[in-house]
Amino acid sequence: MRLGVALALLTAGVPLVAQSVQGRLEGRIPGEAVPVVDSLVQVALREGLPSEPLVQKALEGGAKQVPAPRIVAAVRASLGQLREAHDLLVRAGDQPPVRPGEVTTVAWALRRKLPPSTIERVVAELPHPPRGPAIHAIADLVAHGFDPDSSAGLIIDAVHDGLQRDRLLDVSTAALHEVQRGRTRDEAITVVRQQLPNVPGPPKPERGTVTRARRPETMTPPRR
Amino acid sequence: MSTIDPRIHEALDGELPTDALPVELRPAAQTVRTAADLLAAPVPGASLESRIMAEVRRPAPSPLRRAAGWLATPHAVTLRVRPVWSLALAATAAVFTLFFARDAGPQLGEHEGIAQFVGRFPDARSVHVVGTFNDWRPGTIALEDLRHDGVWSATVVLPTGTYEYMFVVDGERWVPDHLADRLVADDFGRENSVVIVRPVHR
After folding, report:
1. What is the predicted ipTM?
2. How many structural domains is chain A composed of?
């Protein structure tokens, strides 16, 4: 009896998710794209992949008034990136089930053209999630022309020196500031490495900024 | 031992006419003569009557001095207020407190931060920011051109995390944020801006 109830609840879970996804998509993307996107979301759920990036990509396409085939193609491509990110994490040493947040972060880094080998190195050398800030920091440096291996080395050193989470973003910011001051990228990495772990923090928001801040009505979960 | 010039002595004693003194000694001679006159004058009687009359004749202090004196002197102050007025006063204070508490901005959670969106759109009639934080729903977060100089801005509270976004100008033109540190291909032929919202500790 109990087993039956449990099975019923488990099988009821997927339609509930599907229903909520369809509810978010209907009226926001072309009607013919809804069932296809919904089926891709179901595939992601079955494979243990995060589904929110797929929903967001579909909603983005709908808001930008992109035709249905292109929305479906973009969602399909996103699903492929999530699979690639998942496989990369497992290959680098993560044990399944992999955290959805990690998969999303790695997929995002791949979209930002971070070499898979660099991500594998980060995962291998930083075995304890979350690695999101580290990967974001490296992607920021690479996007500004830094060598991927040197960037990864700097951020990994920062972690070993005790910097964690968002403080790692201060490391990449410090390196970018050194370049703005006229140093070469190699010099910037050397200088910032010498500063570790005492890189400058982010500027505190002014009181007026905090006072003006308003909470938007429609919120969705962040993409880590 | 006196240090006064002997010629001054002679002038004071009447042995020498004052005019016969050298010019440089005349001020000193005058000073000494004045002092001698004062010493020679009779001392007024310090009777009670004379002291009272002196006090009466003394000019009254200025209003400012009197006010300063009153402020510096301890006084017993009795405030008599009807209970209904004290309740009204308490209610007013509560309303003011609530007003200023609201004006101090939102209370941020541990996993919340602030994102500032700024763009220059001189001829725009409206600018909104849309992205993964609001399900890409146009119209939910409006930017304002507070100084009417074409610089539109919005400051919003968001959960910490990474978001993609774009500006929508006049409800139809999609524009990336050129001030953003990060851009990423949107898979639709354009680029989204990326913002990382970090926690704010006040």
Report:
1. 0.83
2. 2
